Amino acid sequence: MTVINGLEGNLQLTVHCKSKDDDLGVRVLGPGQSFYFKFWTCVFASTLFHCSFEWPGSGGIHRFDIYDDRHDYLDCAYCERLVKPFGVCKYTGRTKKFDRCFHWKNESM
Fold it and tell me: Is 41 helix (H, G, I), strand (E, B) or coil?
């Protein structure tokens, strides 16, 4: 799984990802930088990693399920996620673009 800072304006992105069993810690990504982590999926399709994101001027912490077996298992041979101000875009192997975009799961102001 690769998480990429896709924010404009030379902004740093603070990322904190975890699952039920693993806390990957807090990372700070500069413009265009990425954070890679590897994990094994569960046989029962229950693997879930969620991340929180914050940057200067973001208005608070934004949350997103960065990997969810229920939706990503068959479509995630090599998972890449691009973080934008409005949400997260998933890379699609078929189109070779970040063209599946989703707004933030919930907002905490």
Answer: coil
Between 74 and 48, the more confident residue is 48
Q: For residue 21, with 0-12 CB atoms within 10 Å meaning exposed, 13-18 middle and 19 or more buried, which class applies?
A: exposed
Backbone φ and ψ of 85, nearest 5°: -60, -30
Among residues 66, 3, 81, 74, the alpha carbon closest in space to that of 45 is found at 74
Please give the Cα distance from 8 to 15 (Å, whole number): 16
Query: With left for phi above 0 and alpha for psi between -120 and 50, is residue 78 left, alpha or beta?
Result: beta
Burial degree of 52 (CB within 10 A; 0-12, 13-18, 19+): middle
CB within 8 A of 84, min separation 6: which ones? 6, 7, 101
Tokens in use for 41? Answer: 């999926």
pLDDT digits (tens, 9 = 90+) for 6-57: 999 999 999 999 988 889 999 999 999 999 987 666 555 567 889 999 999 9
